[in-house]
Design brief:
Blueprint lengths: L2 H17 L2 H8 L3 H15 L4 E2 L9 E2 L1 H26 L6 E5 L1 H8 L3 H7 L5 E5 L6 H4 L3 E6 L7 E6 L2 E6 L1 H6 L14 E4 L11 H7 L11 E3 L2 H9 L4 E5 H9 L4 E2 L6 E2 L3 E6 L7 H17 L1
Parallel strand pairs: 3-4, 3-5, 8-9, 8-10
Antiparallel strand pairs: 1-2, 5-13, 6-13, 7-10, 7-11, 7-12
Helix pairs in contact: 1-2, 1-3, 1-4, 2-3, 5-11
Length: 305
């Protein structure tokens, strides 16, 4: 069987199995039911095995055989990869946008304030940002590159460390003037704490209770306070004087430099168990625009450090 006919036969088989009908598959593929049936039969003849249990009557449902059921997931995955490959051919290496996935907070506090320098260096590359707290499926969603926060291991992705970080308490200058009696972490007892719920504590994220235990302030009640699931909003609440936040240095760096936040206990900083990593699929590593963005991220991270 020639390659084009073989691909058409596989497509007809997959659609027929999904719809359990030659007629519905024909509607999807914009051909006649007879053409779909002929393609499926040609595939069965080539394989020398039936792919469907055919009942009596023209309206009976097609039921894939056990062999066909086992093969369908791989065939569907293959069509998905072909579609992605065609998309890349259509977009072109330079003409299509570079799709970057990051968390909303990382975009707001680190990436967007710096992205103009990338545009200046590479005006021919458009960047499309995908900001989401959920982990993106790079292959299914057409993601080129991203920055993830964690321990550095994600199945199917190459990772390179971008930034380490420290965890420390921050507040607004006005809050500090009003609460001048807060000198040590133990003095936070009874004060308003702002909790960051954007990362699951089970993966190693430092919560207030964990941080206070590590610095020896175990008598501070951490059961109360504002709870926010976005790190940028946590810092904004602290800037607005809503209380004390547990900041991550990567997120808070610009606010500290601008004087919008101050480190409450400058000498009490703990290294986070987690870090920021550049992530991408190994098969995409040679794309020029991906390499350019990766190199730019590493250069910017060096400047931040």
């Amino acid at each position: 069987m020639k390659a084009p006919v073989f691909l058409n036969a596989l497509r007809a088989f997959e659609a027929s199995a999904r719809h359990q009908s030659f007629s519905l598959a024909a509607t999807e593929l914009n051909v006649t039911p007879a053409a779909v049936g002929q393609l499926v039969r040609s595939l069965e003849e080539w394989l020398n095995t039936p792919l469907f249990h055919r009942g009596s009557g023209g309206r009976s449902r097609l039921t894939p055989t056990e062999t066909a059921e086992r093969a369908l997931p791989d065939i569907r995955a293959g069509f998905d990869r072909l579609s992605q490959g065609l998309s890349r051919l259509r977009d072109g290496v330079k003409d299509g946008p570079l799709t970057v996935t990051v968390s909303p907070a990382f975009a707001a506090k680190w990436l967007l304030p710096r992205i103009e320098t990338f545009h200046t260096l590479h005006p021919e590359t458009d960047v499309r940002l995908d900001t989401n707290l959920r982990l993106a499926d790079f292959a299914a969603q057409g993601i080129d590159i991203g920055v993830r926060y964690g321990r550095g291991s994600w199945p199917g992705l190459t990772s390179e460390k971008l930034l380490d970080e420290e965890i420390f308490a921050v507040c607004s200058p006005e809050w500090l003037r009003t609460h001048g009696d807060v000198v040590t972490p133990a003095d936070l007892a009874g004060k308003a704490l702002i909790h960051d719920l954007s990362v699951d504590v089970h993966v190693g994220f430092a919560s207030w209770s964990d941080w206070l235990a590590r610095v020896g302030a175990t008598d501070v009640d951490t059961s109360r306070g504002m709870q926010i699931n976005n790190s940028a909003a946590v810092l904004q609440a602290a800037i607005d004087g809503q209380g004390v936040a547990l900041a991550r240095s990567v997120m808070a760096n610009d606010d500290l430099a601008a004087g919008r936040l101050v480190a409450l206990f400058p000498r009490v900083k703990l290294v986070s168990k987690l870090a920021y990593y550049i992530v991408y699929r190994a098969e995409c590593a040679t794309l020029p625009k991906l390499r350019e963005f990766r190199d730019w991220l590493l250069k910017e991270a060096g400047g931040t450090a």
